[in-house]
Amino acid sequence: MQFTLRQKLVAVFGFLLLIVTFIGVQSIDRFNRLGKSIDVILRENYKSVIACQQMKESLERIDSGTLFLLLGYKTQGNELVKKNIRQFTHYLDIELHNLTLPGEAEHAQKLEYLFQEYKKTIDFVSSNRNLSMQEYYLKTGLPLFYEMKNTADSILQLNQQNMNDANNRARKQASQARRYMYILIMSAFFLSVIVLVSSNRWILKPIHRLIDYAQEIRNGNLNLVAIVETRDEIGKLSQSFNAMVESLRLFRRSDQSKMLRIRRATREVFKNLPEAIAIINTEGLIEVSTDSARSFFSLNPDSPIQKVVPQWLSLFFHDALAHIKNNGNEYKSEVVQYFINNNERYFQPRAFPIFDEEKEWNGIIILLEDVTLLRQSEEIKKNLLSTISHQLKTPLTSIRMAVHLMLEEKIGTINEKQADLLITAREESERLYGIIHDLLDISRIESGNVQMKLEPLSPYELIDESISSFQWEARDKGITLESKLPQGLSEIAADKSRLSIAVGNLISNALKYTPQGGSISIYATQYNHNIKFYIVDTGKGIPEEFHSMIFEKFFRLPGQSNLQGEGLGLSIVREIIRAHNGNISFSS
């Protein structure tokens, strides 16, 4: 008779469940018996033991209170006596309602009678003040005190003896239950081992055989056939397994030819791409690369990126690897200068992660974009601006001088309309002179012609002096301008005059765009030997589409008037910070 896998599992686990249920029922029964034995101890004797101990303690304190009365301390004595009489009465009542042992009732009734007599003695002593009361208490009250203590002690010993007897009985029951449970557990263990060993042949052996077949398929062996021995679910699974392997054999034959075509086409496309591109797996092995990547950067397929001749490529790969693992997006580094055939070239390294169908990262594409022409174009623009600024400075100086002389009427008188036109010309020429001066500053800093005089500078001195220059302007506008630098900042190496200009430009920019009633605060944090400054204002902010352009020359937000500058202030700040080997960023 053939059994299904479900029937086999039900038989195995049903038998084990039966064993566990039997052991559980027996355990519960034994624990209940043991619990009842312990409950007897607590219910019948523990209350009486506690009550007797408390009564003895109360008697001691009543006796102490009586001694206070005899010595003339009536207030203290009466207070102590009354308090402990109430306590004794309370615990005596507990004992009278918990009489469970032979002879315990007679002792409790005797104790109650003796206590009543003892109370009468104490009442008599407390109501008389003559010295003969001491002798009266010693003859009458003290014997009653000792007899009550002995009676309470007798009740205590009766209950303690009964507790010891009950404890011995409970120990004996626990020992019997333990031996019984050991026998049950060992029996269940041996029966379970027998059942599990038998089930190995029914269930586990065919499954292990299928696992071995699956491992063979994983290793690429598609020529095996699973043996079908039974008609249960495992037998059906073996038949389906054989059908799957047959389908895989057919698929592999068609898929191999397709993959071969795709690989060849991919290689041909890669060979003809103009950019230097390489695909690298997670272990750093180059899999595919373009001709330019191989010829210019030695990014040859099947070679490790760590051994590529330009050392910065290996460092870039490791930085990109760490970035992609943490963020999962594109990584881009600074532009790199590289000489090819003694020609200076500039490349922008970029790395893109490769994800499989399960969104798991399994490789990197490195793109080395040639930005030489772009770099040269920027250099031409910088040189052009610098040249134009130099050429304009001399004639503009002459124009300013001429307007100045005409306004001072050195060469003849002028009428009111002519004066207005000359004043306007002077203001515009001064604004143009400021623009040219700023452009020359930027050009000198960018070209490295400005030598920074780096000296130790206190960040507190830098910020306090910068703030003091704008305090009156901030007060006129109703804006709070304050420093919130923490204590303990170290000195920095900086050109004080240049860095003051940068900080002043940032504060001035914040004042322009912070409304009345707002605030501007300056914070700082220390990172090893570097300090990061934060200039925070409550202005309306800058739209996101303009974030990437705010440090560019001549950039101004749409809708601004000419009174708010020509868009060179933040460019100057950026160049000064870069000249100090620092970084500047912004968030809105």
Question: If you had to describe this structure to a student in words, what would you say it looks like?
Answer:
With 588 residues, the chain is α+β, with helices and mostly antiparallel strands. It is built from 13 helices and eleven strands. Strands 1, 2, 3, 4, 5 and 6 form a six-stranded antiparallel sheet that branches. A three-stranded mixed sheet has the order 8-10-11. It is flat and about 140 Å long.
Query: Could you report the average pLDDT, rounded to the nearest whole number?
Result: 75
Task: List the total number of helices.
Answer: 13
The biggest sheet amounts to:
6 strands, antiparallel
From the spread of the alpha carbons, the general shape counts as flat
| Euclidean distance between termini CA atoms | 79 Å
Encode the helix/strand succession as letters: HHHHHEEHHEEEEHHEHHEEHEEH
Low-pLDDT runs of 5+ residues are: none
| Total strand segments | 11
> Radius of gyration, rounded?
50 Å
Query: Helical residue percent?
Result: 55-70%
Strand content: 5-15%
- The secondary structure category is alpha+beta
